[in-house]
Amino acid sequence: MKDFKQFLLRGNVVDLAVGIVIGVAFGAVVAALVADIVTPIIAAIFGSHDFSGLTFTIHKSHFLYGDFINKVISFVTIATAVFFLVVRPSNG
Q1: Bridge pairing between strands 56-58 and 61-63
Q2: CB within 8 A of 78, min separation 6: which ones?
Q3: How confident is the model at residue 35, as a pLDDT?
Q4: Digits of tens for pLDDT over the chain (92 positions)?
Q5: Is 52:8 a contact under the CB 8 Å cutoff?
Q6: Which of 49, 55, 71, 81 could link 43 by a cystine bridge, Cβ 3.0 to 4.6 Å?
């Protein structure tokens, strides 16, 4: 039991746990940014704020390419936020 306690309290494990918790919280903030700010801007420019309805069908196979577009927008926004708020400041 002592070895297990040392393993859990080792710096790397604690740092990893803190990083995961902060990452989840940061992801929620960026998801809100996308939903509440970026998406309405896209709607103002392109006329639609939700691309999930964009689909096509080939031989009874249904392709949800609009949902993919939504996910790509979210990913790019999260990556941009991480770069400018975490990576760039830490590199000085």
Answers
A1: antiparallel
A2: 27, 30, 31, 34
A3: 77
A4: 888 777 767 767 777 888 898 888 888 887 788 778 877 887 788 776 667 778 889 988 888 888 888 888 878 877 887 788 777 877 76
A5: no
A6: 49
Answer whether 0.90 is exceeded by the pTM. Answer: no
Tokens 């941009």 belong to 80
Q: Please tell me the total number of residues recorded for the chain in this structure.
A: 92
Q: Where are the chain's structural domains? A: 2-91
Element (H, E) at 61: strand 61-63
- What pLDDT shows up at residue 92? 62
- Residue-wise DSSP of 11-29: HHHHHHHHHHHHHHHHHHH
Look up the CATH architecture of domain 2-91: Orthogonal Bundle (1.10)
